[in-house]
Amino acid sequence: MPVVPTKQILDRAFAGGYGVAAINVINDLSMEAVLAAAEELHAPVILQTSVKHVKMTGLDAMYAMWLAYTKDVRVPVALHLDHCPERDVISACLAKGWNSVLFDASKLSVEENQRQCIEVVAEARRYGADVEGEIEGFKRTEEMTGDEAQHVQSLETVVEFVRTTGVDVFAPAIGNAHGTYKTAPTLDAQRVSDIVAATGKPVALHGGTGMSAEQFSDLIGRGCAKVNISTALKIAFMKSGFEFMTEHPGDYDPPKLFAAQRTAVMEMARYHIRLFGSEGKAW
Ligand code: 13P
């Protein structure tokens, strides 16, 4: 099973009550390693690219890597553009072949976000691609003091946004944040159930790094079919590199360092795939 629409992966997970890891990759090594872990566990997986990494690598180079690494892939995979407020980057990725995009206009008013999101969905459909929507935005964990109330929209506003735009998956703020939580986050799981019941669509869980096994299983059971993991990959990648150089001072043979990093990234991906219940769910 090769590259498939993101929605196909998510709809199956949503119906089957499991979560699919949506892992942000940062370069060729991490892209290959996450795909290898998914193949090993016979799991569907979504690979995400940030705007920063698309620009840093170059859109053509990033997509050429994706094509090369997925040419003979044996599990369902999809390529997703994470948090993108820039319409020109969205258009370029869709035209190139990304399977889905998160249009992040959370800094705009809901009305303007909605108006533009309708256009993004129409554009995506021309390429057979899917769209994730958000209207609240996510903080970084460093910005969280622990007792501030997260600004969320009403259920009616969310339902209206999802219905009017036709987005395939919605990313709500439920007390989650990007980065490394200082203390375990308090999450509004009921909000996920309410949104799923009212929209009938899967929810994307952001800020996955550092949530507990119980939180994942509860939220996935409520409809979080897409579970985003980014910081955990960066930690695995950077720490394994540091540890390798600490344990092998003076060894400047890059492939040995890369092998250590690949092992660490694969282990991180395996851990989350198993935790989210998608092991063996490839078709
Ligand atoms: P973490 O970096 O906290 O894992 O969040 C990932 C994410 O939500 C990407 O959009």
Q: Keywords for this structure?
A:
TIM Barrel; 11 helices; 283 residues; alpha/beta; single chain
Can you walk through the features of this model?
- It is built from 11 helices and 8 strands.
- It has 283 residues and is of the alpha/beta class.
- The protein has one domain: Aldolase class I (TIM Barrel).
- Helix 9 (213-222) links the parallel strand 7 and strand 8.
- The chain is globular and about 60 Å long.
- 1,3-dihydroxyacetonephosphate (13P) binds at residues 24, 82-83, 178-179, 206-209, 228-232.
- The site of 1,3-dihydroxyacetonephosphate has 14 residues, from strand 3, strand 8 and helix 10.
The helix content is 40-55%
Span from first to last CA?
Answer: 7 Å
Proportion of residues in β-strands: 5-15%
Characterize the main sheet. 8 strands, parallel
Unreliable stretches, pLDDT < 50, 5 or more residues?
none
Q: Determine the mean pLDDT.
A: 96
The name of the CATH topology is TIM Barrel
User: Gyration radius, to the nearest Å?
Assistant: 18 Å
Strand order of the largest sheet: 6-5-4-3-2-1-8-7
CATH homologous superfamily annotation: Aldolase class I
Task: Please provide the count of β strands.
Answer: 8
- CATH C-level label: Alpha Beta
Q: How many helices in DSSP terms?
A: 11
Q: What is the N-to-C order of secondary-structure elements (H for helix, E for strand)?
A: HEHEHHEHEHEHEHEHEHH
> What small molecules does the structure contain?
1,3-dihydroxyacetonephosphate
CATH architecture tag: Alpha-Beta Barrel
